[in-house]
């Protein structure tokens, strides 16, 4: 199963210029960078020219016999000089657009998954020279270096988002702990106030008991004195 990889617009502009040069040097109407989706393949970038039948962002279904499907499945270069003369390719969908010759290379994302292909197509028989094939391989390396930069930047952004989420979660936990501490502090203050109130009540009660005991002692002393006087009288 394929997966779609996102690319910032500034890279598409750069690759557009590369494809325009490739189309001119190889003298072909169509130079393309294709991006695969789970069930489709998309013309991500296309060279500019009146004879190019492909439009950027148009999509085609997979499992239909496209040249690029073989390139992605084998991860190897594919060259078809003339599909009409080749039984294996005479019925592929691009023939309907009169794109009978094809040269394509796989484009690999840094995690070793398939991004898509870079390819050139023509409406006439074409045998691509080795220098022209080498040129495409060199451009493939340039584009895949861009992939590495994009992938690294995306990983940094993903990690940044993860850290921000962790910080937010931790901050929420700390806020919750602070609320609990404040609640606990308030409860401690309430309990302390209750204890101080009870302490005052106990002290007051003790004072009452002590005063009563003192009065009882005095009363007993007075009774004893009175009893002594009565006996002496």
Give start-end ranges of low-pLDDT stretches: none
Return the structural class. alpha+beta
- CATH fold label of the domain at 9-153: Beta-Lactamase
Q: What do we call the CATH homologous superfamily of the domain at 9-153?
A: GAF domain
Strand order of the largest sheet: 3-2-1-6-5-4
Tell me the CATH architecture of the domain at 9-153: 2-Layer Sandwich
Q: Tell me, what is the CATH class of the domain at 9-153?
A: Alpha Beta
Q: Beta-strand percentage?
A: 15-25%
Helix content: 55-70%
**How large is the count of helical segments?**
3
Mean pLDDT: 89
Order of helices and strands: HEEEHEEEH
Q: For the report, how would you describe the main beta sheet?
A: 6 strands, antiparallel
Q: What is the first-to-last residue Cα distance?
A: 126 Å
Determine Rg (CA atoms, Å): 45 Å
């Amino acid at each position: 199963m394929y997966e779609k990889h996102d690319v910032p617009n500034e890279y598409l502009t750069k690759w557009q210029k590369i494809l325009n040069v490739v189309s001119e040097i190889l003298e072909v109407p169509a130079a393309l960078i294709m991006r695969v989706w789970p069930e489709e393949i998309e013309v991500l970038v296309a060279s500019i020219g009146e004879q190019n039948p492909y439009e950027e962002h148009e999509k085609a279904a997979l499992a239909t016999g496209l040249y690029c499907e073989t390139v992605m499945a084998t991860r190897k270069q594919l060259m078809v000089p003339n599909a009409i003369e080749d039984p294996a390719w005479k019925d592929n969908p691009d023939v309907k657009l009169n794109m009978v010759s094809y040269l394509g290379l796989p484009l690999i994302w840094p995690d070793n998954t398939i991004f898509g292909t870079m390819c050139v197509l023509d409406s006439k028989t074409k045998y691509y020279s080795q220098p022209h094939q080498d040129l495409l391989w060199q451009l493939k390396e340039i584009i895949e270096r861009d992939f590495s930069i994009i992938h690294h930047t995306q990983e940094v952004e993903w990690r940044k988002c993860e850290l921000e989420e962790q910080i937010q979660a931790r901050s929420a936990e700390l806020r919750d702990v602070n609320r609990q501490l404040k609640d606990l502090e308030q409860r401690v203050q309430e309990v302390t106030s209750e204890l101080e109130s009870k302490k005052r009540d106990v002290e007051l009660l003790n004072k009452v008991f002590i005063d009563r005991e003192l009065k009882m002692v005095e009363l007993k002393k007075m009774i004893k004195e009175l009893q002594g006087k009565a006996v002496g009288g």
